[in-house]
Amino acid sequence: MSTLDSIAGQAPRTDAKPRGRIPDRGEGRIAGFLKSWEAILIVLFLAIFTANSLASPYFLDVWNLSDATFNFTEKAIVALALAFVILSGEIDISVAGTIALASTVMGATAAAGFPTPVVALAGLGVGAACGALNGALVTVLGLPSIVATIGTMSLFRGLAYAILGDGAYTAYPDGFAYFGQGYVWAWLSFEFVAFLAFAAVAGVVLHATTVGRAVRACGHNPLAARFSGLKVGRIKFRLFVVTGLAASLASVMLTSRLGSTRPSIAQGWELEIITMVVLGGVSINGGSGGIPGVVLAAFVMGLVTFGLGLLNVPGIIMSIFIGLMLIAVIALPVLIRRATILLRGTGR
Amino acid sequence: MGNLLRARETLLLAAGILLLALIALRAPGFVRPGNLAAIFTDSAILIILALGQAAVILTRSIDLSVAANLAFTGMAVAMLNAAHPGVPVALLLLAAAGIGAALGAINGFLVWRLSLPPIVVTLGTLTIYRGLAFVLSGGAWVNTFQMSESFLAFPRAVILGLPVLAWLAVAAIAAAAVVFGRTPIGRAFYATGGNPVAAAYAGIDTGRTVFLAFCFSGFLAGLCGYLWVSRFAVAYVDIASGFELDVIAACVIGGLSIAGGIGSVAGVVLGSLFLGIIKNALPIVGVSPFWQMAISGAVIIAAVTLNTRAERSRGRVILRRVEAGARA
Known about the structure:
CATH class of chain B: Mainly Alpha
Strand content of chain B: under 5%
CATH topology of chain A: ABC transporter involved in vitamin B12 uptake, BtuC
CATH architecture of chain B: Orthogonal Bundle
Helix content of chain B: over 70%
Distance between the termini of chain B: 22 Å
Distance between the termini of chain A: 34 Å
Number of helices of chain A: 15
Strand order of the largest sheet of chain B: 1-2
Shape of chain A: globular
Structural class of chain B: mainly alpha
Number of domains of chain B: 1
Structural class of chain A: mainly alpha
Number of domains of chain A: 1
Oligomer: heterodimer
Strand content of chain A: under 5%
CATH class of chain A: Mainly Alpha
Largest interface: A-B, 79 and 71 residues
Strand order of the largest sheet of chain A: 1-2
Largest sheet of chain B: 2 strands, antiparallel
Radius of gyration of chain B: 20 Å
CATH topology of chain B: ABC transporter involved in vitamin B12 uptake, BtuC
């Protein structure tokens, strides 16, 4: 496959009209479209919020809502980083594997008697290393990221199983519990504050810096990005490392919150996290999407699962809602566009 | 290109034989024909699913919902069997294939008619189908004693020394070889994945081709739903959880390009068998089963690295760094 073919390989089928394919129309149209996307999410959020308040008398309680944030903050922190990877035209399926491996190493470090900072740093180190391995496979060896990270997903979680077997680490040092159970102020949890802070940083980096623009450029057209002088490989490598770090940070919080590590920790999270990013309006083909959408999607998914939980709906039924929501939200713009074309009676 | 493909399959075959030889050093009994046949039977479901997935991947799509499809269909036929033990197995097979194909058609329809990215669609239907399996069963299991004897006996019946399950895999391999290599739709699979624009200009309805590939994958996944439930003699919501990634791994190890258009039936079968041999050999050579996942992960990465290298050398490299960066 020649260079051009492999670029064309990223473009969707001939009959597809995805968002990422109109880079020549300028920022205005893309921004306008994103606005409508976020509008859909806000409407969805308000609808779910109202439905939840009406359906359960326990919903509108500040402590309850604070508890609700624990449902999604860890996943959302990974989603913020993964959004950059997906924007750059790659994907990382190994994030949940990274969480499991980082958690296992932290458990082993804690079992060896190290204090909280060392335990947490060990976890973060593992995350960075996992991310670097993914990045190297994709940028140095040139593997398709979806396949490479399916492999590393098995590898990372497999290592967690190899280390732990059917056992569990349950002893963590004093103070480690703060990351997942601590409160910064009254009902404001450390996890939630950390998520908001990272969301703000991610938003600024993506939307107000050259780094963000470079990431989008890589996703839109890697070849053009390269010819514009961007070091596409290096940028993508760093994004994978950051995503590994984010996953290990989520691992610190999750491990701290649960107080124990098993190899099956965070099983299946990769799909939920990817769902969050895509629901947030980030094109899976790369290039378009934004942080506000991802943050909104995190809230929407968190509210849906929490509200349904209050109504005693089992987790697997919630996943049906999440799946339907994912398909509906990406189908909606297509259907709306079709409808407007039909109503106007002419092509675009 | 034919030569290169053939070389890749030869390479994979050689790797498989080398692997078998290494295992035979530790456990000579492993390479007895009887045991090899058992490994083939054990890999049968993986092979069938991988052939369906191969059709989808050839068209530059991906089907993450196969395992969920299998779980739903398996649950449906198991419940049907438990409620009406009189229904003949042939009818159940038909029902399984029909339900599976319908679920595949939903994926295909969304990708074709709404132009949604396949990975997102099947990510969504993955959770939906498995959720529906829960809705259908209410979370209950269908256990061995609830299944009729013929339901359990069918894949185990031995014909000419091999169980029906293995013969079904052989039939699927033969069917896939004919469909991929000898029919217009097979050529359309390759063309759609190889270059969708050129395929469209050549008069191929690429959207419809992708739709049919998803139907094919769903059809086989449905069939495997019955086979899985019957083989393991139990049906519950979480059966084959995460198996979709094994299926994709088998395809990729077999030399299928995730970018579409490249791959062969022989490669996919060898890839599936390769994974099957490793899974069966680890406990025999005394490796803890807890290492199995890590080792399959490492094997996948190694195989993809080799395959991608081979693929890469075919093009003229103009700007090496861009080549690396451009590969998504």
